[in-house]
Each structure stands twice: as structure tokens, then as C-alpha cells.
């Protein structure tokens, strides 16, 4: 496990999600819930890059690669949430949040900025774990086939 790999791919996830949401905002589609869910594709891409590179470097341990995948996705998530927090404050703070919270997966309501970001952290942690486990199962099957051929 190379931390620079996790950091690089986590940053790629962050850039992908950031650019995606900027494009949605410019097109006026940032309130479409289903389009907002597609950010998971950037997480899949970054985590897959990490796991593939680990296997190419001969790192075969399931737990090592799973931890590497989770670290990668959480770096992307934390950077994205930190950027969103900054964006909310730039756009006006609590009044701007009222508009965002209406389309939030946890139902919105009278959330503070901190509650909103903590909710996003829980949501992104769950997504990170799911993506990491799914991709580990995918790569586990590929490596077993590769090992049988060798």
C-alpha cells in the first residue's frame, strides 16, 4: 500500500466530483437528485485505479487492498465535503443551505451547516464502503483467474 497512490486517486475523485457539480450548477441541474447520485462513478473510477495499481505492484492482500480502497474513497469524500462547506459559506451560509437541504437524501428540514456536512460524511462513508467492498470482490475474482492461469 502506497499512501501517495491513495492520496493521488482520492484527489482525482475530488476533482471529478467537483467538476461534475460545477457543470451541474452551470447547467441549472444541481437540484436533480438522480444526477447528483452519479458522483459515485468518480468514486468507482478512483478506487478502481488504486486497487488495479496495487495488484500490478504485486500487493495481493485482501485486507491491505480493502483498506487502501477505503482510504482512497474517504480522501475524496473529505476533500469534497470540505469544498462544499466552503462553497456554502461563500454562497451565503444558512440561507443557501435551505435550498440545498430540500434535495438532501436525509430529507432536509432545519439543518445547520454542520449537521448537513456530517450527514454527507455518513452518506459518503457508506458509499465508500460499498464501492470498496464491491470492487474488492470484482478484483478478487480477476486475481483468482490470473493465478490459475499462471
Describe what you observe in this structure.
It is a single chain. This protein is mainly α and 150 residues long. It has one domain (3-149). 81% of the residues lie in helices and 0% in strands. Helix 1 (3-27) runs antiparallel to helix 3. The longest helix is centred in the last third of the chain and has 37 residues, at 113-149. It is elongated.
Q: Provide the low-confidence segments as ranges.
A: none
Summarize the main sheet.
none
- Quick one: overall form? elongated
Amino-to-carboxy terminus distance: 23 Å
What count of domains describes the coordinates? 1
Mean pLDDT: 85
Beta-strand residue fraction: under 5%
Going by helix content, strand content and strand pairing, the class is mainly alpha
Radius of gyration: 17 Å
> What is the H/E order?
HHHHHH
Please tally the helical runs, counting DSSP H or I stretches of 4 or more residues: 6
Number of DSSP strands?
0
What is the helix content? Answer: over 70%
